[in-house]
Amino acid sequence: MSGRRLSRWVAAVPMAVLALATIYPLVFTANVAMKTRREYILDRFSLTSSLHWDNLATAWNSVGMARYFVNSLFVVTVSVIALLLLGSMAGFALSQLRFRGSKALFLGCLAALFIPFQVIMVPLARVMADSGLIDTYPGLILAYVAQFLPFTIFLMTSYYKTIPAEIVDAARIDGNTIYGVYRRVMLPMGTPALLSVGILNALFCWNDVLISLLMMPSADHRTLMVGVTSLRGQYSDDIPTFASGVLIAAVPVLLTYLFLQRQIADGVTAGSTKG
Q1: Longest C-alpha distance within the chain, in Å?
Q2: Helices (H) then strands (E): counts for the chain
Q3: What DSSP character marks residue 217?
Q4: Which residues contact 181 (CB under 8 A, 6 or more apart)?
Q5: What's the CA gap between 215 and 124, in Å, rounded?
Q6: How far is CA 273 from CA 156, 162, 190, 195, 231, in A?
Q7: 263 burial class (0-12, 13-18, 19+ CB within 10 angstroms)?
Q8: Taken in order 205, 206, 207, 212, is the CA torsion positive or negative?
Q9: DSSP state of 237
């Protein structure tokens, strides 16, 4: 028993340190957001003497955070729907249909996962500018779909490979076309993976700054994360207001992780086991 307890402590201590290192920035940001400017200048690490909720209202109203929130909500929703539709169709085709070049296409999707966005950002910006899609919602949505589609295809293909091929053959014998098999069989059976991948893609799109900043240069079309950065420029000495903006942008992500953590974990391991 002593050896087992010792092994538990050896595993628990690093995990506790990692948890504290993850939680501390959030606690520090929330504490700064509740301070006055004077309290922050005097001692940025001390606990606030009182809760100043006016900082949140100032951050929300000063640079149009409400408009940025709606922009992010619209772009993320449409992008996730497009990603799930295209990713599930591609995953079904690559995992269950037999056609020449399917393995090469899947390997191409895997290779795309290893290409950083910084490598393709200049060609992407030129293509979008030539197509007239810069500073438009369709342009940003297409950029998100292009960036996160390989990840979606990879997870959906891995998940659909765990479904026995006999189910697809039985649906074909019953008279279903390929589209019927996809709509009536694969989509319902893939609901757990679709939910997990949808949550992950929503988090990726919501937290993005670089793609949104590249595709949406004007202030009216900015997303929430890019809008938060404008607080730092306008209020160069008002760090509590900037921290309040960061806190507002982080709340949807925190709620998603809090209530959907099981689905997120399932999405990371989708298709890793058979049966």
Answers
A1: 76
A2: 15, 0
A3: -
A4: 92, 168, 171, 172
A5: 9
A6: 13, 7, 15, 18, 46
A7: middle
A8: positive
A9: T
Tally the residues of the chain: 275
Under DSSP, is residue 23 helix (H, G, I), strand (E, B) or coil? helix
Model pLDDT for residues 222-232, shown as the tens digit of each residue = 899 888 887 77
What pLDDT is attached to residue 238? 79
Q: Side chain identity at 93, as an amino acid letter?
A: A
Q: Please give the single-letter amino acid code of residue 157.
A: T
| CA 269/CA 241 separation, integer angstroms | 39
Predicted local distance difference test score (pLDDT) of residue 275: 44
- Please give the structure tokens belonging to residue 262: 């099981």
State both tokens at 215.
């595709």
Q: Quick one: tokens of 230?
A: 């404008």
As a whole number of angstroms, the distance between CA 35 and CA 64 comes to: 22
What does the pLDDT look like over 210-269, one tens digit per residue? 999 899 888 778 899 888 887 775 445 678 888 888 888 888 888 887 887 776 666 566
Based on its alpha-carbon atoms, the radius of gyration of the chain, rounded to whole angstroms, reads 23
Question: 256 by DSSP, 3-state: which?
Answer: helix
SS3 for 136?
Answer: coil
